[in-house]
Write a structure and sequence with these properties.
The structure is a single chain. By secondary structure, the chain is an alpha+beta fold. It has one domain: Roll (Ubiquitin-like (UB roll)), CATH 3.10.20. Helix content is 17%, strand content 19%. A hairpin with a 6-residue loop joins strand 4 and strand 5.
């Protein structure tokens, strides 16, 4: 058995071709090798998605080792990430030409992830809970003690 047998490998599918990559490097280096090997343009943001629809967010963790984010001997689909607008919504596009034929469930998941989230808990008109944290009122000053009937001052005669 050679030392090569111990190297963790992962498979990435693009245009119906599988390539083998070694994830024992930074995410930045892995993405650059993927970009080079798969002939992707420099201005495209790349990422990987597994067969279950989990985006690996390699571009967001460029200094981390890729082996912390991806598993060996797994197959990943190469995707393009595009920022849609100022609110930070992301759109994911498969770089596999016929993903809807090969894995329609994964295509649906990518489409679902790409839709902007327009609802949140507190956006409804009839909301019952306040979105602002309530300020606590300080304890009121204790009122002076009222004198007992025996302690009342008697008027001077």
């Amino acid at each position: 058995m050679t030392s090569y047998d111990f190297i963790m490998k992962m498979y990435i599918t693009v245009h119906n071709q599988e390539e083998i990559f070694n994830p024992w490097c930074t995410s930045h280096n892995l993405l650059e090798w993927i970009r080079r090997k798969c002939n992707c343009e420099d201005d495209v943001i790349l990422d990987l998605v597994d067969q279950d629809g989990q985006v690996k967010n390699l571009a967001g963790r460029l200094k981390d080792y890729a082996c912390q984010l991806v598993s060996g001997r797994e197959t990943y689909i190469l995707i393009r990430v595009e920022r849609q607008n100022d609110n930070g919504a992301l759109h994911y596009t498969s770089l596999l030409n016929n993903l809807e034929d090969i894995n329609p469930d994964l295509m649906l998941k990518l489409n679902s992830l790409s839709r902007p989230h327009t609802r949140s808990k507190n956006k409804f008109k009839g909301k019952t809970s306040s979105s602002k944290p309530q300020k606590l009122r300080p304890d009121p000053q204790p009122s002076p003690k009222r004198p007992a009937s025996s302690e009342k001052k008697k008027p001077n005669k």
